[in-house]
Write a structure and sequence with these properties.
single chain, two-stranded antiparallel sheet, elongated, mainly beta
Length: about 110
Amino acid sequence: VASREEDFSPRAEHCTQQCAWQCTNPVCDQECKPECESPKCQTRCSGVDLSQCRMGCGEPHCAVLCPQRPCSGPDCAACSSHCSEPMCMLQCPKSQSCHNVCEQPRCTWKC
């Protein structure tokens, strides 16, 4: 899902409480505290250099499976081997030009 840049920009409805101060007599709307949702973040990279990268894979896990009942005839099912899914990651020695972008927090004020 592609995100637009305006999804991460401040919006007019995300304002703070208003207070007025006159000497030592503070006058505020109310005592309020924000309750915010966790922001969604994305990692964005530009100019990725894969020239010195290599694929690193973990050891596969394999198992031999045989029929539950012993059988010695010509129509018997043979044992078979099954391996786990490959677990590979691209490993690069140089750091890449990446940065994180988080959307503006979505908060409500509890007063």
